Each structure stands twice: as structure tokens, then as C-alpha cells.
């Protein structure tokens, strides 16, 4: 196979981006739009059915149309299969996912070699689809890697720790008896126990100080230090069509004991929805039984719209027919929809699902300029063309040489290279609008955020002293202790057009709106001028360390004897002095 050889072929490609090519493999009109995901909640696995629509069509129809367009243009001899030469001209997922793919940079998730035929020397339409599915361009994917939060910033710019990590760290520090819960007595020790972590002695605790040596310092986009089971670090997983053994292993790891999961450990509503999987009626779910998890009725069913959706909201409860009854959610799950998306309330956990109109902005002009520069540097003899031997050190151009050489003369001119870039740009635009990516992030409110009542990103002495007050707010079972599961969790699942939207350093945007950085916010100065000057850490209190007067004066102002002079105490003291004429 060689590259497209005429302007007419390029126009045909552009037309193909709008209309699926006829013939074998055309998308079926009734191809379903459902992608199931599972949320690993504390109450058990929750199955969510997402009905994904791109420009008003099923995402599967759009993806199949893209693959058919690409296949038909690769199949130059129109025999219905790709031979070796035709297959080798197929662009990689990296090229179709990012402008920098043309410069040899691989997008995260775009892996593997170029497309090569099987033993019979042929690639079918299904084989082409399988190739892109495993190399980074499937119809749907959840970004790889652990859930990230950019709520709290750590020492290295771009590196973040999540509310979940901070909560785990605080539990480890405060749970002195190791029962997995924080009693009132343990919460009362927070100022003493956590105060030891105040390295700069400003009487304020930052997230960095709380995490200490536990902080996962790493450069941006670095991979985890310790390998984990695929998907084990995530709480949202895609469900495969048919039996899914990988998901079954994740469910066993999260909820099971050994090689099986006891139904008795799950809450009543969840136990009832999973009971039908227990084929042998032994009250336990084996790996084989859990592999059928995706066949159960969805606990929540939502329609998610991306691309051109008109005036319709991005996420709504799903109905089987237009205007029909909304299926909503099973008992125990509350779903609230808004113009921003849908919020699922599951006990103390919230899962926010939303879509963004963000797409890849196109092949940037500077990529074209860089390729021109590469071409001219490789053409050291100023021949005006390159032969394959000129590209020994430029693998990304050498591998695509035959596809770029549109007239089959064994030479690539700069004009042919730019034409190839235009063809890849056209294909990339359709690829972008043919698949959906989900990025999951932890949004807080972790235990650190709950203690940080003024939201300045630091824990003051008073905030630590108020830790026992959390029991009144969060002790759901009334046992007088705060369990890890009682700390509210808030996750966001953001859906965007295109592959691996959330963790690709080469894509311009595609970051869910809920993700944010918290600046170093300090409360505005209040109180008498002497109080403002003494409150050096701006936490709204003056400690004995900050107070420049005598012990006797401090005790006189600190009317409640808690060791801190509040704004109110300072103001009362000033009023008394003025009334006494002092």
C-alpha cells in the first residue's frame, strides 16, 4: 500500500469523515450506546449504565464509522482485507491521538508496535478494530493510573496528594489503638500528636507536613513506584461485554476474602441485587460467578451527551424511549441532575458524573513547521527529497515512509510530507469524535478538609482542638467513634471526546472542571491592630508563642483559658480598656 496519490483521494477521505463507507462492516443502525462501569463503593459494587451519545449518535456507531473510513482508505485494492503493505501504512494510535504523535512522541496509553498482519498475511476489519483497541484508541476507556486529586499541593510543582491519602495518613497517626476508628479521646490528642509534625514551628500544619515521608514525591507524569494490579488503584472500572474475569478479580480484592466473596458482608440492597449471581446457592460468589457481574440490571442508568447536543443537558436519567419513564436508580441511591451533570449520593459517598465539550484542538501549525525542519535537516545534500536511507535515525518518519511516498517513486518530497500531515489531521479529527474517555478524580472532602474549617489549606491549633466535633457530624452508627467509612468521599468522573483525555501531557486540555488547585489563602486581618500584628500566621488566633506581653496579660485576655486569644476575646479586652479610660 502507498499513500494517497491525488487531490481527489484526499477529498474522498474528507467526505468519508462525514459518511460511513458502504460495504462490509458498515455500522448497524441499532448498535447499542451502552457502556457499563462499576463504582467500588463502601457499600458494595454499584453498576452504572452509561448511554453515551456523540453528536446524537451511539458512540459505538461513531467509532465503527471511523474504523470503516480508515479501513476503506487503507484497502487500496478493494479486496476487503489489508495485505502487509496496506497494514503497515496504518497510522499508530499515537499519531491519531495527538499532534506530537507525528514527531514520534507516544501519548500515554498509546502502546505497542505498528499494525502487522496475522499468519495468513491479512488484516480484517475486526482485526483493525482490535489493534486500535489494545494500542490506545478504543471506543471507551478510563484513564490508567491511580485516582488523583489536585486539591492539595505538595513540594514539587505538578505533584499532588489526594484527600484519600491524607485521610489514611491522619487515621494512621491518630488511631493509637489500631481499631480502625477514631474515638473522642483519640481526636482530642490531635493537637499534641499532629503538632509534632509542625516542622517550621508556625503553629500551622500543611498537607506536606502531615504526609511527611509518606508524601509520594515524584516528577509530573511519573509512573507509580510500586506496580499494582491493573486497575487496583481506581474505584471506577469499565465493564467488558460478556464474562469479565479481570473485573471479578478486582471485586474479590476489594470485597472478598481469599478466593470468594461472601454475600453476608454486603449491605442488604447490594446483597439482593447480587444474589442471582450465586448459582450454587452457597451464599458466596466465586471468581466465575463474579465474572458475570456485568449481566445484572444496572443500579443507575444515565444518558451522557458529548459533542453537538443542542440544548440538551450533558447528563440525564435514562429512559428506554423518548419521553418515556426515567429508569433512575435502585433503592438506596439518590441521583440529582443539573446542567453540570449528575450527582450520585451513596451513603457518605458522592460520585459526580459530567461531560465536557473539550476536544483536541487540531494539528497545531508548529508541528508542521517542526516536520519541515526535520525534513530539511535530513536532506543534507539539498536534493529536495528524502530516500528511506536518509531516515535511519528518524524512526517515526522511516516507519511511515511508504505511506508518505504518494507516487511510489522511492522518494519523499516536502510537499508529500505536508500532504501526509493533512491526511493524518483529517483522520485524527474523526478519531477524536469517535471515542470517549473518562478520567476519575478525588475531590475531597477528606478528613484534612473537614478539619480545615476556614479552607486555607492549613490546620491551625484551634482547628485541631475542634477535631472531636466531627463525631456529632459524621458518627452515623452512633458508636461514639469515627470510622474510616464514615468520612465523606467525593469523586468526579469526567467524560470527554477523544482517547485518554485526563492524563495526556500532549493534549491541550480535557481536565474535569471539578479538579482544582487550592492557593495559599489567608484570612483577612481582623481585630485590634495589636492583635493583627501578633497573629503572624494569620490563623485568627494569638497563641502564647505569638503574644509579646507577659503571662499575666495573656491570661487576662484569654478569658476562656484555652491557651488562645481569639478575635472576640481581643475585641472584648479592648472595649473594657476603653471603658476604663486606659
**Mean pLDDT value:** 78
Low-confidence stretches: 1-29, 145-160, 215-233, 501-521
Number of helices: 22
The tally of beta strands, per DSSP, is 24
Helix-strand makeup class: alpha+beta
Distance from first to last alpha carbon: 96 Å
Characterise the protein shown here.
The protein has 582 residues and is an alpha+beta fold. Among the domains are: 243-291, no CATH class; 529-579, no CATH class. The chain contains 22 helices and 24 strands. Helix 13 runs antiparallel to helix 16 (414-432). The relative contact order is 0.15. Residues 1-29, 145-160, 215-233 and 501-521 have low confidence and may be disordered.
Task: Walk me through the topology.
Layout lengths: L6 H10 L17 E8 L2 E11 L2 E2 H16 L9 H5 L4 H5 L27 H11 L4 E3 L9 E2 L6 E2 L1 H12 L6 E3 H5 L1 H6 L8 E2 L1 H5 L24 E3 L6 H11 L4 E3 L5 H7 L9 E3 H4 L9 E7 L8 E3 L16 E5 L2 E6 L2 E7 L9 H14 L6 E2 L8 H4 L2 H4 L7 E2 H19 L3 E7 L4 H5 L7 E2 H5 L4 H5 L6 E3 L5 E9 L31 H6 L6 E3 L7 H7 L6 E3 H13 L3
Helix pairs in contact: 13-16
Amino acid at each position: 500500500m502507498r499513500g494517497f496519490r491525488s487531490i481527489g483521494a484526499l477529498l474522498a477521505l474528507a467526505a468519508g469523515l462525514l459518511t460511513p463507507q458502504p460495504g462490509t462492516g458498515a455500522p448497524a443502525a441499532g448498535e447499542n450506546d451502552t457502556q457499563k462501569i462499576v463504582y467500588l463503593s463502601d457499600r458494595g459494587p454499584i453498576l452504572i449504565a452509561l448511554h453515551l451519545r456523540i453528536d446524537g449518535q451511539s458512540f459505538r456507531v461513531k467509532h465503527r464509522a471511523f474504523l470503516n473510513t480508515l479501513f476503506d482508505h487503507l484497502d487500496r485494492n478493494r479486496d476487503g482485507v489489508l495485505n502487509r503493505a496496506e497494514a503497515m501504512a496504518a497510522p499508530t494510535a499515537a499519531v491519531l491521538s495527538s499532534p506530537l504523535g507525528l514527531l514520534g512522541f507516544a501519548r500515554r496509553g498509546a502502546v505497542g508496535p505498528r499494525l502487522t498482519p496475522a499468519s495468513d498475511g491479512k488484516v480484517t476489519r475486526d482485526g483493525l478494530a482490535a489493534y486500535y483497541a489494545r494500542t490506545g484508541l478504543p471506543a471507551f476507556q478510563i484513564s490508567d493510573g491511580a485516582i488523583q486529586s489536585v486539591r492539595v499541593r505538595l513540594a514539587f510543582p505538578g505533584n499532588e496528594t489526594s484527600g484519600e491519602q491524607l485521610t489514611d495518613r491522619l487515621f494512621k497517626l491518630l488511631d493509637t489503638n489500631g481499631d480502625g476508628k477514631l474515638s473522642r479521646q483519640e481526636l482530642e490528642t490531635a493537637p499534641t500528636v499532629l503538632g509534632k509534625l509542625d516542622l517550621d514551628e508556625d503553629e500551622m500544619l500543611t498537607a506536606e507536613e502531615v504526609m511527611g515521608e509518606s508524601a509520594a514525591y515524584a516528577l509530573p507524569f511519573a509512573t507509580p513506584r510500586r506496580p499494582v494490579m491493573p486497575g487496583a488503584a481506581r474505584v471506577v472500572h469499565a465493564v467488558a461485554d460478556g464474562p469479565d474475569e479481570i473485573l471479578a478479580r478486582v471485586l474479590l480484592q476489594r470485597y472478598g476474602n481469599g478466593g470468594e466473596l461472601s454475600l453476608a458482608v454486603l449491605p442488604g440492597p447490594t446483597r439482593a441485587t447480587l444474589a442471582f449471581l450465586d448459582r450454587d446457592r452457597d451464599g458466596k460468589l466465586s471468581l466465575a460467578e463474579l465474572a458475570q457481574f456485568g449481566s445484572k440490571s444496572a443500579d443507575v442508568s444515565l444518558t451522557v451527551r458529548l459533542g453537538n447536543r443542542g440544548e440538551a443537558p450533558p447528563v440525564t436519567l435514562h429512559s428506554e424511549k423518548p419521553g418515556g419513564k426515567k429508569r433512575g436508580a435502585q433503592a438506596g441511591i439518590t441521583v440529582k441532575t443539573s446542567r453540570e451533570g449528575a450527582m450520585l449520593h451513596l451513603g457518605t459517598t458522592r460520585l459526580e458524573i459530567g461531560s465536557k465539550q473539550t476536544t483536541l484542538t487540531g494539528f497545531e501549525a508548529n508541528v508542521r513547521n517542526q516536520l519541515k525542519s526535520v525534513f530539511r535537516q535530513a536532506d543534507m545534500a539539498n536534493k529536495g527529497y528524502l530516500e528511506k536511507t536518509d531516515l535511519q535515525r528518524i524512526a517515526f518518519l522511516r516507519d511511515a515512509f511508504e505511506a508518505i511516498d504518494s507516487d511510489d517513486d522511492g522518494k519523499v518530497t516536502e510537499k508529500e510530507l505536508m500532504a501526509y500531515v493533512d491526511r493524518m489531521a483529517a483522520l485524527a479529527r474523526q478519531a477524536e469524535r469517535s471515542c470517549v474517555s473518562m478520567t476519575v478524580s478525588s475531590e475531597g472532602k477528606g478528613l484534612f478538609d473537614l478539619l480545615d474549617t476556614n479552607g486555607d489549606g492549613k490546620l491551625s491549633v484551634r482547628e485541631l482542638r475542634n477535631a472531636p466535633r466531627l463525631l456529632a457530624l459524621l458518627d452515623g452508627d452512633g458508636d461514639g467513634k469515627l470510622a474510616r467509612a464514615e468520612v465523606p468521599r467525593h469523586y468526579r468522573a469526567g467524560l470527554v471526546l477523544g482517547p485518554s483525555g485526563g492524563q495526556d501531557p500532549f493534549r491541550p486540555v480535557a481536565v474535569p472542571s471539578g479538579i482544582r488547585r487550592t492557593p495559599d489563602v489567608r484570612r483577612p486581618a481582623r481585630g485590634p491592630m495589636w492583635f493583627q500584628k501578633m497573629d503572624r500566621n494569620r490563623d485568627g488566633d494569638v497563641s502564647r508563642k505569638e503574644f509579646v506581653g507577659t503571662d499575666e496579660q495573656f491570661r487576662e485576655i484569654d478569658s476562656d483559658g484555652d491557651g488562645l486569644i481569639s478575635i472576640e476575646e481581643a475585641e472584648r479586652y479592648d472595649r473594657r480598656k476603653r471603658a476604663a479610660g486606659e
